[in-house]
Amino acid sequence: MRIGMGYDIHRLIEGRPLIIGGVDIPSEKGEDAHSDGDVLIHALIDALLGAIAQGDIGTHYPPSDMKWKNADSRDLLRDTLTKVAEAGYTIGNVDLTVILEAPKLGPHREIIRQTLQEDLKIPLDCISFKAKTKEKVDAAGRGEAVEAQAAVLLKPLD
Ligand code: C5P
Ligand code: MG
User: Fold this and answer.
1) Which of 68, 70, 122, 138 could anchor a disulfide with 61, C-beta 3.0 to 4.6 Å?
2) Three-class SS of the chain
3) pTM to 2 decimals?
4) Where do the domains of the chain lie?
5) Which ligand is nearest to the CA of 133?
6) Fold for domain 2-156?
């Protein structure tokens, strides 16, 4: 088996959508990014690439490459899953955490898990999603940023 962990952070600004795990969350502020800025999927991609020791999101999907410019993060995730399969692995489970002062993500937990399941194609009880505040401490705590952490376990394809 292989383990992987990923992290990402994006600044939050007004007038941008807040996309978390492919879901558009009603919010006054959203991620500042060239792409959709999906902080959770970016952390998940880094965890998957980390588990197969194949670098990181920036090396595989540079914004400078026209192929990936303005790409939907879910497209990048699906491409990463092909790399995982080519390396001979499949996902055991994922455990995901978003650190965001507001809004509350608990009410959106099930739609986020179901949306991720469409791409991950693993049982729902193998997809964990959690949310935390930063207790008003530092940039995320002041509502200036959103962070995400991802842990994944890969198992060999039979
Ligand atoms: O950060 P804190 O420990 O105060 O969060 C308490 C609970 O609030 C979390 O366990 C989670 O259920 C929920 N929460 C949430 N959305 C956030 C932050 C926290 O649903 N953005
Ligand atoms: Mg990112």
Assistant:
1) 68
2) CEEEEEEEEEEEEECCCEEECCEEECCCEEECCCCCCCHHHHHHHHHHHHHCCCCCHHHHCCCCCCCCCCCCHHHHHHHHHHHHHHCCEEEEEEEEEEECCCCCCHHHHHHHHHHHHHHHCCCHHHEEEEEECCCCCHHHHCCCEEEEEEEEEEEECC
3) 0.96
4) 2-156
5) 1
6) 60s Ribosomal Protein L30; Chain: A; (3.30.1330)
